[in-house]
Each structure stands twice: as C-alpha cells, then as structure tokens.
Design goal:
Layout lengths: L2 E3 L4 H20 L4 H16 L5 E5 L5 H7 L4 E6 L2 H10 L5 E5 L11 E7 L8 H11 E12 L4 H4 L14 E6 L10 E6 L2 H11 L1 E9 L16 E8 L3
Parallel strand pairs: 2-3, 2-5, 3-4, 5-6
Antiparallel strand pairs: 1-7, 6-10, 7-8, 9-10
Length: about 250
C-alpha cells in the first residue's frame, strides 16, 4: 500500500535501488516488466533514433537495459547511476565496444566530452534533486543537444497506485511516496520511493533551465503486449526537449 514518507536524499534512494536491482533485472530478463519493454523504452528509442544520435548519455541508467539498446544507435553511449550495485550489474551483463558505465549522481557527473543526446527513463520522479540534475544535463549537452525522458504521469499515477483519495495527497504539492515495487506480472521485489510533483513543476523546471520543449506525449504500448496488460488512462509521460540559446 502506498504511503506518504518524509523527504529522502540521494543516498536513501540509492540504497533502495541497491536492494531491488537484481530483482528488477530478473523482471526484465523474464519479460515481466511490460511497461519498460513495450512502453517507455520503445518510445524513447523511437524519437532518439529519428535524430541520428552520435553520443548518448543515459542518466539514471539502472542495470543498463536501455543504455545497451541506445548504444546500437550511436557511436558512443555512457550510462550513469548512483546505485553502485546497479552499475556493477550493468557492467557484468551489457558489453559493447562503444558502451560504458559509471557510478555517480547525475549532478556530479564529469566528462571530457559533450553529448548530443541525453536519455532518462523513469528517473526524475525518483530524484530529489531533479532540477539540479537537468541543469547539469543542460551543461553536458552540445549546442544542438536534446534531452528525452519519461516519468510516471502525475495526473494518473496516484490513481494507479490508489492514493489519490488519501487525506495526505494534494496534487499541487511535492510528496515523497513509498510503495512496493511490482509490475502487472510480478510480485513485489521490495520498497522504493517516488516523488509526486505536479506536471507544471516539470514544465517550469525545463523552461527555467533553458530547454525548449519540443514534444510531450502520453505514451502507451507501441508493441504487442500480453493479455491482461491494459490501462484506460495513461500511466507515463514522454518529454523531448532541445537545448536553447541560454
């Protein structure tokens, strides 16, 4: 059952993902995470590939599934994540000559190159410092660089997790929420935290940083899904933003 919790820092969030990353990878390997396999990752890759990327940064890469897929579209792809166990897992599973992984927070990442593309799948709603993260991503992109990311849909995710009628929930507030990490076809692998923020907060954050928003989409499966995987209202949002002339 979802419940409101106190504010957490990056180390708290990292510890949660250290705990669940192996179970999460097992979900992916077993085809149990349909939202990842049929919704968020395919939609990100569809729009990234249309812009012929050469250098890709995967911010908050987890155990590396999307990073590995993105590397097939580019000359160089680097995945970063604050979860040390997730990065160790990624390094052990996904190996390509143009692919590498590093353990660090997004806001602390240092590189001797600029990227034309940054991707972030289901990351910013788990990041207590998300605004600092996108400001740093802005600086890591070249003059024509783009940021592509997905988040849980702020309007409908509270309904999906069934906390929209809780007395502590107020749509316009930033709220840290704990719940069991499960998918439609798996059991819980542990407790993780996401941060509810109103949609306007994400839009204001992007614009204040200097990004130009090119696309916002409520995304659904774009490949065939198993019987039983269906939702009437959108669960996820996709953003495509281009670096402006700040």
């Amino acid at each position: 059952m979802a419940k409101k919790t106190s504010r957490k820092n990056l180390f708290d969030i990292s510890a949660e993902w250290d705990t669940v990353c192996k179970g999460r990878q097992s979900m992916i390997d077993g085809g149990q995470d349909i939202s990842l396999l049929a919704v968020t990752v395919p939609n990100i890759l569809k729009y990234v590939s249309a812009n012929n990327p050469q250098t890709i940064l995967d911010a908050g890469c987890g155990s590396g599934y999307l990073t590995y897929r993105a590397a097939k579209l580019s000359k160089r792809c680097i995945g970063i994540d604050i979860s040390k166990k997730s990065i160790c897992l990624a390094k052990s599973i996904y190996k390509e000559n143009n692919l590498s992984f590093e353990c660090c927070a997004i806001e602390d990442y240092v590189c001797n190159m600029l990227f034309d593309t940054c991707i972030a799948n289901m990351v910013f709603m788990d990041d207590p410092n998300w605004l600092r993260s996108i400001k740093h991503i802005y600086d890591l992109l070249d003059k024509n660089g783009r940021l592509y990311f997905t988040i849980t849909h702020p309007c409908f995710w509270p309904q999906y997790w069934n906390y929209h009628n809780e007395p502590w929930f107020h749509y316009n507030e930033e709220i840290f929420v704990e719940n069991e990490f499960v998918t439609s076809f798996s059991e819980s692998i542990g407790v993780t935290t996401h941060i509810h923020r109103p949609l306007s907060q994400y839009i204001r954050g992007l614009l204040s940083t200097g990004f130009v928003i090119e696309r916002i989409e409520e995304i659904y499966p774009n490949t065939e899904t198993p019987e039983g995987y269906h939702y009437e209202y959108p669960r996820f949002l996709f953003f495509q933003s281009k670096k402006g002339l700040n």
